[in-house]
Amino acid sequence: MMKNIPRLMVDSSDRNSDLRYACAFRTTSDAVVFLQHRQQVWLVVPLMEREHAVAALRSSGGRVLAPADLGLCALDRRRVSAWAYGLLRATGIKEVAVAPDFPVATADLLRRRRIRVHVVSGPLFPEREIKNRRELLCCMASQRAAVTALRVAAALIRDTAIDTRGRLLHEGTVLTSENVRDRIEHVLFAHQCTGADTIVSCGADSALPHHRGSGPLWAGRPIVIDIFPQHRQHGYHGDLTRTLVRGPMPARLRRMMTAVCSARQAALAQIRAGVSAARVHHAAVQTFSRLGMTTDLHAEPPSGFIHSTGHGVGLDVHEAPTLGSGRNRLRAGQVITVEPGWYEPGFGGVRIEDTVTVTRAGYQLLARCAVRL
Amino acid sequence: MMKNIPRLMVDSSDRNSDLRYACAFRTTSDAVVFLQHRQQVWLVVPLMEREHAVAALRSSGGRVLAPADLGLCALDRRRVSAWAYGLLRATGIKEVAVAPDFPVATADLLRRRRIRVHVVSGPLFPEREIKNRRELLCCMASQRAAVTALRVAAALIRDTAIDTRGRLLHEGTVLTSENVRDRIEHVLFAHQCTGADTIVSCGADSALPHHRGSGPLWAGRPIVIDIFPQHRQHGYHGDLTRTLVRGPMPARLRRMMTAVCSARQAALAQIRAGVSAARVHHAAVQTFSRLGMTTDLHAEPPSGFIHSTGHGVGLDVHEAPTLGSGRNRLRAGQVITVEPGWYEPGFGGVRIEDTVTVTRAGYQLLARCAVRL
Prior knowledge:
Two copies of one chain form a homodimer.
Chain A: E1 7-11, H1 17-22, E2 32-37, E3 40-44, H2 50-57, E4 63-65, H3 80-91, E5 95-98, H4 104-112, E6 116-119, H5 133-158, E7 161-162, E8 168-170, E9 173-174, H6 177-190, E10 193-194, E11 199-202, E12 223-227, E13 230-231, E14 240-244, H7 251-270, H8 277-290, E15 310-312, E16 319-323, E17 335-338, E18 341-344, E19 348-351, E20 354-358, E21 363-365
Parallel strand pairs in A: 3-4, 5-6
Antiparallel strand pairs in A: 1-2, 2-3, 7-8, 8-9, 10-13, 11-12, 12-14, 15-16, 17-20, 18-19, 20-21
Helix pairs in contact in A: 3-4, 5-6, 7-8
């Protein structure tokens, strides 16, 4: 029902992936105004950016304005909120749809000046969920970079001795999370990607799914490596996790590994267009419960399978859809992660994650990753 | 007068530098709730992040909550806006100050539930303008990375032949903006920095201050190199621009270069704590007008000295203060750029930029950069 309401954004494209998606012009870190009504796009940019924006929007027929084109007073020419109002006045548009994170200062100003501002409850650009061929290739490139980086990390971990305390030694020095993360970042960089927040967590740290990890890596404990590169040019992400164990694997850990692998298979087996996301998630959840493994979300910290089974991947590393207990259905062309995990506080965690694209018949891995130590 | 109103943020630290500044916990890309009242800080994070956040805030005494701690209904436990309301209810706070870009959806919800939401007109954390010793050292590290990268770029440009059409040839192939940018990015990466949007623009492109540049580099034309690295660990920026010319310099370009150097000296000579930013800006503006050079902001594209003389640098590459015609005064401990430029559409631009810290007696360069071809 919001379909025909013009969409308005006031942001910079490095902060706002909707803007990056909808508009070929990449802003500086300063905010611009974007307005779309049906096929027509308008952009208000600082005077200094106008020529550049005009060139970027030429092929799409978008119209570029500078604040001086909007008949604003001197004060308003310096306020991006006022640019938004000036553009709406110039186009005669009295009603806009904005994202939940639209800036309150602009919304307040527009409402004071009798513009109706509808805050959408979901994404402002739901079409982002379905990737076209180009976008899919972009995600694949980032996913391949992640696979290459993971292989290099695995080779580094494999090529270690184990000291008497159980720490991994690489060329005589203790190998740390930081060392491995650094190596991964170098590989990603060489593949035109950034990956500053890569996770390399070992032992008890790995029981906290988003712990980045620090300090020595240990034999016989899980090493969770979660790599989610963003391509420096096109901005699309990949997302990949493997859990590696150097040296003999304790029975408790082996049981966790086997369970997570089974949950992964069970979830993947459900994926195809039309299936509810909850069905995929429940397939993973039930795998654990069938094995007699109990999740406790209220423990401190929570234990078991404590997150959803996956999420969309694109210009944002976490975007729609969510593969949790919601009622959404999978659609062909979505790019999603499948990442069951099991976390035992104080001991460690296991997570295995792949990124796939949903097809009518099932799914396709964005890249294969058969890494073993 | 806003001083004692609690400050509220709902965002992720990779998008929101205020959050990164005010809170030791680095979020994932998902939003968290931050509340500060006098010395007390509260954070609401997803259950999965709680342990990690508790560890990050331990030394500062900040309190970490998960949605489940706030007595929210199942629906509200999934909405970060409702977390914000739950936290305010739990702390008895009925009035908050938020930044202009605070998410409208959260503001609307809080207002419906009778919380007074004050949108500040300037920065929510004005204290960010004054850098402490640690922050200054961080900016210096990034600035040194920029200087090293600029030296490498200059060496690459110096080490070229000039073909019959005037293009620069490096080891037999045409040297492009992209080649130089790539080299710069590698150097920055090796210095723990990112610099994806580095400008290397030549000739007519350089007349558009934010044009990133593309294609062959030419002899006898300005090559504007603007490097603004962000450190991958601590997040502070440097900002440095030099304009290089390979081969003989045409008289028109020499005149621009000399003028910009004079404007730079004139602006720098004004800098010290207590001086108005406008005085610094006008020193640069007047240098050009005394030389008989006219700025035309209304031309298409605008020509002359078409931007302000500088801006603050920190966790954001553009932050307060602005060195334009505003009434703000410089203060000791600010880190600011001084970057006069002169742009002649169709021909080219010249910009020279250094980053300095304001002192009581004058200023100090963050790093020296005496690059010559």
